[in-house]
Amino acid sequence: MWKCFKKTWSVSEMNSAVWIVRRQPKMRQMMVLLLAALCAVVLPSRASAEAPPAACRNSSECGPNRCCLLGRYSGSEPSCQTAPQENGICRPHQEASNSTVYGSDGKLKYTVTNVYLDVCPCGEGLFCDPNSGGVCKQST
């Protein structure tokens, strides 16, 4: 299955579309023009709607339903990420931590406070249910 333009395409549908484009030169030209026009319209609007994650040193810099997240990989930079919503993956009993990050040369790079590792805590009104293996559920 392929997902494109909010539609799930089966393998046979994809093969039919590929066959039409390959066997029909005029159809190929039309498809190329259509794809170019679609990219010219869709990509700029997508880029402005989805801003890149902001750099942070503390979760208080990120705003509501977001946290400052530090990856476990060497060289990862902390960034504001969206908190998981209902049925999202979470880490039970996770707490914010403080950390000192050093560069590859061994010198102090920066310190972070009130940051999370790998995943933000659940969004407002939710809790991380340890009985479900770490899934955000509605608070009761």
TrEMBL record:
The keyword Signal applies. Residues 1-49 form the signal peptide. It comes from the Eukaryota. Keywords: Signal. This is Astakine. It comes from Zootermopsis nevadensis.
